[in-house]
Each structure stands twice: as C-alpha cells, then as structure tokens.
C-alpha cells in the first residue's frame, strides 16, 4: 500500500508539512479513491488547514481555540465561528489594552499575546501563497460597530518583509482606509521597511504596513476615545479621524466561499 503513496510524499511535503508525523493518517485512509493526493487525505481524515474546514465538518462549532495546520505544521489559532458566516481564522484581536503591541520585528514575526485575550498571531502564520477574504471588525467606545471585507488578501513571505496585498472591497460599512497601505512591507521600530525617511514604526509605536505613515493602524497604542496626539492610537481615519482611537478590533481571514 505505502509503495504507491511514497512518490506523493515528496511532492506534497512542502504543502502539507511534516509527513512522517502523520503517516498513521495514510494507514487509516488507504481505501480512499484519492489516496495519491496527500493533502486531500489530511482534509478527509481530520486535519484542518483553516477554521472554515472545522466549520464545514461541524456547523455547530463554537468560536474558540482549535489546532490547524499552518505553514506546514500544527498551530493553535482562534476561530471566529459566529460573525459574518463564521469560519474565520483570527490573526489580530484587541479590546482592552492588556497586551502591548509596540513590539520588535521578531515578536511580530513569531506572534505574541494570548489567544483567549489580545494577540497577534504572527506574520509567518498569515497566508503567503493563496488568496483569502479579509474581514476587519472595529468597535468605537460608544459601541458602534464597523466592518469591511476585502477579497484577494495575502501577506507575502519574509523575503519581501511580509508585504501586504488586498483586493477590492466585498462588503462593509467602513471606509476603505487600508487600501492606501496595499503593497506596503511590514515595519517595526527596529526594522524600517518603508520607502520614506520617516520612522513610522517608532513614531507610531507599533508594527504595521505603514504608508506615509498612517491612514489605518490597528496596532497603535491603546488610547482613550478622544485624545490630543495626532494619528496616535488605534486608527482608522474614516472612523476615528486623527485624534480619536478605536476600542476593539479583530482582523481575520478565510478562503473565499464557493458559489
């Protein structure tokens, strides 16, 4: 049985991660007609690569922490299963200022915070090769909720400093302020990858895809609803202007819905 599968192991290893650790999956799935496709075996036998896979298998799945295969290895993620159709993998969450988002390059790359609280999942764990839908949810201190959904969302790999790519807006009631940051490379206070002379990461105390410097910055300092510092805080210019800040944000992605 394994002889017929061995050629596929080498082919699929980069896509599906540590094949050796999952050999038992093949042993239990050898009767499937698509057994030569290792990634398909993973999906059919319980290994998930997105929160949407979990929701597809169990429509009653609740929001919370799940284990999925991210970048070829198992990784815990927070899945949002209730909002906007569910199946979202959350990579940024803020709501009370308990986690400092003024972090260095390595911390943003690896991720920080707590999946049960505020966190940044990590640049290296956000989609690199495939296009996803991006959903951003923002809450003002008065409770007003805004959201915007983009298609064709990608964060490229470390060789181009996790460059952001977003496509057209799908839906939402928020202004399209992230579009100005499209094609920007990620910057932190110790790694300036902007094409400008300004120290955006240092001046605005966060890691972000800065563009001259701020039209949107959801990783900025956690400040009060209204303050006196220009463009400081959790900024989405069409909502906050330059001297206000958001109370809560969520950034999340999922594969485009079929049909």
Would you spell out the secondary-structure blueprint of this structure?
Layout: H1 2-16, H2 23-29, H3 38-44, H4 51-57, E1 64-70, E2 73-80, E3 88-94, H5 105-110, E4 112-113, E5 119-120, E6 132-139, E7 145-155, E8 164-165, E9 169-172, H6 200-203, E10 216-217, E11 235-236, H7 237-240, E12 248-254
Antiparallel strand pairs: 1-2, 2-3, 3-5, 3-12, 4-5, 6-7, 6-12, 7-8, 7-9, 10-11
Please give a structural write-up.
By secondary structure, this protein is α+β, with helices and mostly antiparallel strands. It folds into two domains: 2-44, no CATH class; 73-254, Gamma Fibrinogen, Chain A, domain 1, CATH 3.90.215. Helix content is 19%, strand content 24%. It contains seven helices and twelve strands. It has helices at residues 2-16, 23-29, 38-44, 51-57, 105-110, 200-203, 237-240, and strands at residues 64-70, 73-80, 88-94, 112-113, 119-120, 132-139, 145-155, 164-165, 169-172, 216-217, 235-236, 248-254. The strands form two sheets. Strands 1, 2, 3, 4, 5, 6, 7, 8, 9 and 12 form a ten-stranded antiparallel sheet that branches. A two-stranded antiparallel sheet has the order 10-11. β6 and β7 (145-155) form a beta hairpin. It is globular and about 50 Å long. It starts with a helix and ends in a 5-residue tail after the last strand. 36% of the residues are buried. Residues 1-45 have low confidence and may be disordered.
